[in-house]
Every structure is written in structure tokens, then in C-alpha cells.
């Protein structure tokens, strides 16, 4: 099937105000790290706090160029190009920042165009994009990867790449994975007319029903919903008022469910303890249908250094204290803490984990 002609332009506005590739999985409901409500908060700029970068995110960014170069080494007949964020001219809500675009030429052109449409300052288009490349990193035991399949990637990553395929008019998208820090894999993802239609429909629905009118999505009991409530109602501005009939009904339901939760708490903890006892010294227990119970980590004591370590190291570097003083100070600012094993359920639906 041939690539399609699309209209794109370099994003001159803030791309975060449009729906991007990392947003679409959350809107569809398959992103384990982000909810639809998170996308709503982000697009309307309701939260002033910046998203904290965890170690997985940090090392993903640090390794992006390295993994992309590994892909390039395996495909010497193509050139990889980094491009700015792109906005669709056909869908007002669509934006994307592909990691790389793949040009079927060993020489990188000075200008870049998608399917004959200029997306960078320049004159007549001179090159064409063959496909795209998304770069990912994951630990050895990350869920959702099927290394036996050429397209065995987690759902939200496939939808991210599909979003970029729609944006650029490409019919294939490659994904390069660095797994466990030293295992390299490649996947080839293909365009799906059915899924593309569904994705565009859901994205348009989210955009027109929530973003344009600035109408809150339905609360869903998630942590993200609590965050939305705090953004929407940061403090009280009205005095005490009389309750409504619906509020009285909600309070009655809340009290009833809280009582039910308390009666379930002890039996729940007992079943959990029996599971841990059954797993015992093993790391994991596998079931015939592919489900797995994992109790990983180390529950022995470990030494944890307090926040003063950096200051002590600076004093040592400046020659203010010597090595003996450093060792004594470091010992005094270290404590022994209990280690921790975590119980994780894989393949049982939404994955919970318990410390």
C-alpha cells in the first residue's frame, strides 16, 4: 500500500497544546503511565508543577542517540534525521515529535521534507521520508514486549508510532529497543486503516468535547482525578452552605463503602501474606496461561546515606577535611534501613504491585 500525501508544518505554537504521540495511548486508555485526565491537565496548562523525571526517563533520553546510532549502523543505506515538532495541517488537534525520520539515502540532505511537503525553511523539496524510527529503552522484565514477534511492542508504543504514521503519511514505522542496558532489538510496525480511523475518532472526540470547551472529563477514581480536582479547586472561595440531596446520597454511599473496605482489609492482607509465604525463596511463580507472580528485591538490611553526603564529599574535595574525617562523617550520617521485596502480578489485568 502506498504512502499517502499529507500536509505538515514545523510547529510554531507550543506543541504541548496539541495531542502528541505520547498522549494518544492515554486517551485510548492503554498507557500504563498516563491517564486521559493527565492529558487534559497538560493541554489546558492547569498544573504549574513540572513532571519529575525518573531514572527510566533520564536514561531513555541519555541513550536515545546511542540506540539511534546502533539502528543506523544496521541500516547503512539510510540516513536518520532529527526534525522539529510537526503539526498536521489536516487535523487541528494533531502534533508529533518523532525521534527520527528515515531517508533512503546514505547522505543526509540539508533540508528535510515529508512526502514532498516542506517542513523546514528551504526551496523545492529534494528528498522523501521512507519511514520513521522510535527509540525506546526498557528493563529486562518490562511488560508488553514480545521479542518473538516483529511487531511485539506494548500497545501504547504502537499507538504512538501509528500516530506518527498518520501525521507523516507513512505506512511503516520502525522501533529500536535497548533492553536491559545491553540487548538490542528492532521491530517493524505497520499502518492499520481500522485502528487509524478509531484513533482519529477518539482524538477528535477528546478534543471537541473536552479541550475546546474546557470541559472536565469524568472522574475515574485515579490519582490523576485527584490531581485534576486539586487543580480545578485549589482552595475554597465560598462560605458554608446547605447540602444538596445528591451530596447526602453521596455521603451515605461513601460511608457504607468505607465500612466495607475496613471489613475486607484484614482478610485481604491475610491472603497477601499467604501468597508471599507460598512464593517463599523463589523469585517468581509461573502459571500455565502465562500469568506470573513475582516477589523480587532484597529484604535484608542495607546502608542508606543521608542528604549530607554531597556536602561531605565537597569538603573532602576542597581539602577542608581528610579521608579519615570523611569516613567518620560518612559513617555518622548513614543509617541501616530494612530492605524490601515487592510482589508483582503479571497478566492478571491492570498490574498492581505491593510492597
Structure description:
The protein is α+β, with helices and mostly antiparallel strands and 355 residues long. The protein folds into three domains: 8-226, Alpha-Beta Complex (Lambda Exonuclease, Chain A); 252-301 and 338-355, no CATH class; 304-334, no CATH class. It has helices at 21-28, 36-43, 55-74, 155-168, 193-211, 223-232, 245-279, 309-317, 323-332, and strands at residues 8-10, 79-81, 86-88, 95-96, 100-103, 113-114, 117-118, 129-138, 172-179, 183-190, 284-286, 292-298, 302-305, 334-337, 340-346, 353-354. The strands form five sheets. A five-stranded mixed beta sheet has the order 2-5-8-9-10. A four-stranded antiparallel beta sheet has the order 11-12-15-16, with no helix packed on it. Strand 8, helix 4 and strand 9 (172-179) form a beta-alpha-beta unit. Helix 1 crosses helix 2, helix 1 (21-28) packs across helix 4 and helix 8 (309-317) runs antiparallel to helix 9. The two termini are 49 Å apart. Mean pLDDT is 81; it is low at 109-127 and 350-355.
